[in-house]
Amino acid sequence: MIELVRQYWQNFLFTDGYRYSGLVITLWLLVASVGLGFLLAVPLAVARSSSNRFISGPIWLFTYVFRGTPLYVQLLVVYTGLYSLYFVHSHAALDAFFRSAMNCTLLAFALNECAYVTEIFAGTIKATPYGEIEAAQAYGMSKYKLYTRIILPSALRRALPNYSNEVILMLHATTLAFTATVPDILKVTRDVNSATYASFQAYSIAAVMYACIVFALVWAFRRMETRLLAFLKPQGH
Amino acid sequence: MFFHGYGPLLLAGTWETVKLAVLSLGASFLLGLGGAAAKLSRNRLLSQVGTLYTTLIRAVPDLVLMLLLFYGIQILLNNLTDSLGLDQIDIDPFVAGVITLGFIYGAYFTETFRGAFLAVPRGQLEAGYAYGMSSWRVFSRIMFPQMMRFAIPGIGNNWQVLVKATALVSIIGLADVVKASQDAGKSTLEFFFFTVTAGAIYLVITTVSNLVLVWLEKRYSAGVRRVAL
What we know:
- The complex is a heterodimer.
- By secondary structure, chain A is mainly α.
- Chain A is built from twelve helices and no strands.
- The radius of gyration of chain A is 21 Å and the shape is flat.
- Chain A starts with a helix and ends in a 9-residue tail after the last helix.
- In chain A, 37% of the residues are buried.
- Chain B is mainly α.
- Chain B has a domain at 19-174: MetI-like fold (Orthogonal Bundle).
- Chain B is 79% helix and 0% strand.
- Chain B has eight helices and no strands.
- In chain B, helix 1 runs antiparallel to helix 2 (44-59), helix 1 (7-40) runs antiparallel to helix 7 (177-188) and helix 2 (44-59) packs across helix 4 (93-119).
- Chain B is flat, with a radius of gyration of 21 Å.
- Chains A and B meet through helix 4, helix 10, helix 11 and helix 12 of A and helix 3, helix 6, helix 7 and helix 8 of B.
């Protein structure tokens, strides 16, 4: 195992000599898909909690489909499925986009993440205490101000415990990127495995690396929760 | 033909997926009960082993664990057969899938059951003992039925995640519905159509299990009064 680490630590951490690989790619996949997912999910969650069925219905359908099918299948649809369609590979811009494995992977991951996060945020938006909204309305706040000042700051904070779980599940999901030839930690591991046949050792290194990232994430989110959710703590005397 | 003649292949793949999911559910259910009992036991060693199991398994991605166990078990088995002078035994991807998925999701079920066991009011168990029930009878008549009421939503979530995780087993070579769709796609070059079909099959499975879960929840919460708001 030490032999493997000595020989391949660069591949596992940041480069295979030609391009970025390993930990750097895994973290980039995580940050990009969680970031894109978040940006898309906030407006979608607001729309999802609308009482108008014609607005919330389509978004329900989107989250239902993306939460009801495996991410692996979604990735296959985006990576091999879409590219096999005539109008995709005959159109210059689409062809350029879907030719890149990284683009396809990020698209599939971001949409999947967005679907789960939309439901988490919509849940906490709906659970906003009614008194807070009434108070805001009594102050004469506009709808926009009501959302940006009252509902979203509190709803996004209350979503934090569930959101942190989702981010960790997204990290677990990034391991699928190797099926689309993206050189993340697991892809490096498989290459090391086929070069050395030291399967158990190679996969153990990957397991330890992922576990370390998870523990770092858990620690970071716990700190964020104590800071941002301080207003929900039971008050002492 | 509608599926270019690949209908039976897809159907066989779907059956394989369902079988895998149900068997792994059974394995992880039992492992979860055992794990929860270990974590809640007064024996320090047992509860620490339980904590180690749930923490480690839930920290490592399921795909990495699956590959680690799949190759790891094969190597262990090879060493064993070598030392006994037997022929090599190749692990069947289906068996490996059930073992690894059961082992991984057992950790999630452990946490679900632990929470549910703790949610049963202690007074009810004491009342059971006061009636002179044996500890098995207290478990099967009082603890288990009430624990299930608290565990059903968690079990439902785990099941939905487990069904979707079965798609990963095609990566270690099981001929499940994903593999069938990719094989059909390769020979007809209609990747999009067949992959979307596989997705639709998963959607049907999750939808049907949602309905079953709603029914189960109703059944196990018989006698619970809900406050109408």
